[in-house]
Amino acid sequence: METRRVVLKIAYDGSGFCGWQIQEHCRSVQETIERALTRIVKSPVSLVCAGRTDTGVHATSQYAHFDYHGRMLEQDFIRALNRHLNHDIRILNAQFVSIDFHARYKAFERGYLYILAKEVVPFHRYYRGFIINQHLDLRNLQALAEPLLGRHDFSSFAQQNPEVPNRFCEVKEISISETEDCYQFRIRADRFLHNMVRRIVGTLCNLCTKKMSPEDMRRILMEADPRQTFVVPAPAAGLYLTDVLYPEQYGIE
Predict the structure, then answer these.
(1) Which domain covers residue 140, as residue numbers?
(2) Using one digit for the tens of pLDDT, what is the confidence trace for 105-122?
(3) Which among 10, 168, 215, 245 could disulfide-bond with 62, CB atoms 3.0 to 4.6 Å apart, if both were Cys?
(4) Of 75, 105, 135, which residue sits at a domain end?
């Protein structure tokens, strides 16, 4: 029987996981789904995702692919996996795609939402970030975000990693809105470096509180220095992977 490539659309509450990637001695999203798939298809399965999420980070639209030899239909994977998984992971869709599809390398855009609470609420502590002693203003946050738009070396906003020599990303959108109880940051780019979204949000808040200017943000960006002291990460709990876009030819839903 020929090999068929399956792509899953996945949502998960990251609160109880040490992130997407398999790690020793802790529960990861990848390992949890792979174990369920292995029981269902009766052979080892290896998942490749669109983008790894860290401990405590959530996803409403994560994608991952695997190769399959068998007779199961697309809907069979959805029903079977959701029966085997706890309710903190849901399979939203499964579809067969061409064998050249790759969940990570074929993605040309990713979107994240960060929710920052104005006050600590016990019931939201796993789903909204909170930064103590911050004094934020919506217009100032929006102005500080403008220098980050476009294609830049984002080394200042990511952990140093010699295995990732290309540090250039094209940020296509940073929209910031305010409600009565929180700020919402929506960020879209062709790719993201490790911790990049959390560091952008944390730095926006840090510079806003210190009454620094967009020129200061531009200088921090241009320095391309991972040890930049004004760059601080926002907490993981407020971050959601919300969207991954692929070329139309693959028909990903």
Answers:
(1) 109-243
(2) 999 999 999 999 999 999
(3) 10
(4) 105
